[in-house]
Amino acid sequence: AAAELKTLQQQLNTTRKDQITGVNGTRTLLHLSERLLAGELASKRGATGKAVAAFKEAVGLEDRLHDTEPPDWPLPARHLLGAILLTDNKPAEAETVYQDDLARHPKNGWALAGLVASLRAQGKPQAAEETALAFREAWARADVVLTESRIP
Description:
single chain
């Protein structure tokens, strides 16, 4: 992963202009992928603060993308940010991240799973149970069991 991150960073440094091949520019998508990989690598190394910072940057980059169907970038940065905030014992911040994601993507199972965890971590059992019900409805036909809002 570290070698891939260096490769992404080199490509980002040498790609000066955003080439538009679809709706979103290649440099923008490259920068987003670099921030997500940097965050994941920092997370695995136990550098939670660096991971949070990288994921927050990724969220900002993702928010500037133009909407496309299917999306040019299918891996929601907020799901990764929320998960690392929970790991960092910041469930109230994670709740805000998941609520924001759900405002953009209603009934998203990944965000609902993270929201349930953040509500439980804050000692909000009634809200957690209501959200868990919404999660079960949204995830009823899924073939993946979620343990958090990202794939560990």
